[in-house]
Amino acid sequence: MKAVKIKKVLQTGATNTSCSVQGWVRTFRANRFVALNDGSTLDNLQCVVDFEALDESLLKQITTGAALHLEGNLVESQGSGQNVELQVEKITLLGASDPEKYPIQPKKHSLEFLREKAHLRVRTATFSSVMRVRSALAFAVHEFFQEEGFFYVNTPIITGSDAEGAGEMFHVSTLDPKNPPLTETGDLDYKSDFFGKETNLTVSGQLEAEAYALGLGDVYTFGPTFRAENSNTTRHLAEFWMIEPEMAFYDLNDNMNLAEKFITSVLKKVLTRCEKDLQFLDDRFNQEEKSKPQLQRSPMGLLEKIKFVVDNDFKRVSYTEAYEILRNSKPNKKKKFQFPITEWGVDLQSEHERFLVEKHFNCPVILFDYPANIKAFYMRRNDDEKTVRAMDILFPGIGEIVGGSQREERLEVLEKRIEEMKIDKEELWWYLDLRRFGSVPHSGFGLGFERLVQFTTGMNNIRDVIPFPRTPQNASF
Ligand code: ATP
Ligand code: MN
Questions:
Q1: 184-211, pLDDT tens digit by residue?
Q2: Which of 19, 60, 64, 467 could disulfide-pair with 74, CB 3.0 to 4.6 Å?
Q3: b/e per residue, 130-141, with b = 16+ CB within 10 A?
Q4: How high is the pLDDT of residue 106?
Q5: Is the C-beta atom of 164 inside 6 A of ligand 1?
């Protein structure tokens, strides 16, 4: 008999008809009750076996972690805790699992322990919930942009330009590391490398997305991004997924409006589509918070936080206003900031962003019009000559979730900026062409997908919201 997904079985309810399911044993109690999970939903299906009818050797192999195919009758449950149960008539062992060696026991494991078992951690309630929410978010992202008339474009993963300026890059090469060809001056001779030039893994698809926006109108990318930054934080991965919309004829205000609508729209969708998983993660979040000292606890529960973001406007504040707030803030005056705010133009550190979002405004904040000196070359210069049309969206508990800007569409201004920042202009010839042939105002932003998953699931560490995290000194699996 063809097996049905447990999610469907639980939705359909007791039918008193035969039914078959397959999945992995979460627990086996009293030689009688198998809690079976197939990943389709958080809930297990209670399956009742008649152990007297089973042969001894099969009984022994029903252990936590084993894979079974079960056939039987779906009936109203006798016990409490579930509405239906499967009265098992036939058991097929699909894959045995040595109970002595299977690391995922039916007890609470630490997230650190589970990170070392990344190939098996998805068999826990927490990780399967996180991954289902992650999948629903990804779908909602595509849905949002498609409904708004955007086109999905795939920008290159191997890039020939090192001018993206968003961070340290991973080199891509087929040269023999033991015996690399050298030029006369002793440098690596990239001419004999695969592409005949130096290449890297992309840190952002933005520049290429701009080219496509200036032809297709509104586009977005959603793909892997790589940064060889040695920042061992709970918010940085060496390989992460980024969503980068880029829109022709958008100014910075249009850009901020879109970003806010985008985030609230995908959150709204998962609130209704992932109710069960989010409820579970909310409970988990509340328990974690309870174990923290009072002062460090989140003032809101997970679901509360998500609903708050959906229901409330993001606060829009210019860098200059934020600078004044920070300069006059208590922690600054009491020298509590590790990086004191002393003069206009300094880059904001995570402690400052957190102060603004979590203490001062208590809501998501969009900071805009940053000093030109701390932002990338392609951001549109304001008439004050000091600031650029940049915007960052800051989220409680996460910090920066979006970075974006209106792009500089004026050829002379852009060229001047590239020279000032000592960037290789030759490399950017095609990017400058976009300002030569039908240049228009345009804008875009990048949202780190894992940071969105972090916010939505309440997971504290970014390593726990991607299946197999890549971080400094860690590329196992
Ligand atoms: P941060 O200051 O947090 O390092 P950034 O200024 O380097 O961020 P951008 O270059 O603007 O970030 O990238 C756009 C978005 O990509 C960020 O807002 C963030 O959500 C995400 N992001 C950036 N770096 C990482 C990373 N190493 N791991 C996961 N997400 C990242
Ligand atoms: Mn960074």
A1: 999 999 999 999 999 999 999 999 999 9
A2: 19
A3: bbbbbebbbebb
A4: 87
A5: no
**Three-state secondary-structure class, residue 270:** helix
Phi and psi at 455, nearest 5°, equal -60, -45
Burial label for 227, CB within 10 Å (0-12, 13-18, 19+), is buried
Q: Whose CA is nearest to atom 9 of ligand 1?
A: 403
Cα–Cα distance, 265 to 141 (Å, whole number): 9
What residue type is assigned to position 98 of the chain? D
CA geometry: angle at 238 spanning 232 and 239, to 5°?
Answer: 145
How crowded is residue 418: how many other Cβ atoms within 10 Å of its Cβ? Answer: 20
Which pLDDT score is estimated for 296? 84
* 8-state DSSP, 25: E
Tokens of 126: 């927490």
What domains can be seen in the chain, in order of their start residue? Answer: 6-102 (2.40.50.140), 123-168+203-464 (3.30.930.10)
Question: Atom 29 of ligand 1 has which residue's CA nearest to it?
Answer: 236
237 CB near ligand 1 (under 6 Å)? yes
The model's pLDDT over 206-261, given as tens digits with 9 standing for 90+, comes to: 999 999 999 999 999 999 999 998 888 999 999 999 999 999 999 999 999 999 99
What are the structure tokens assigned to 431, written together?
């990017």
Assigned token pair, 286? 């509340």
Q: Do 421 and 407 contact (CB within 8 A), yes or no?
A: no
Atom index in ligand 1 nearest the CA of residue 446 equals 14
Enter the tokens of residue 477. Answer: 């699996």
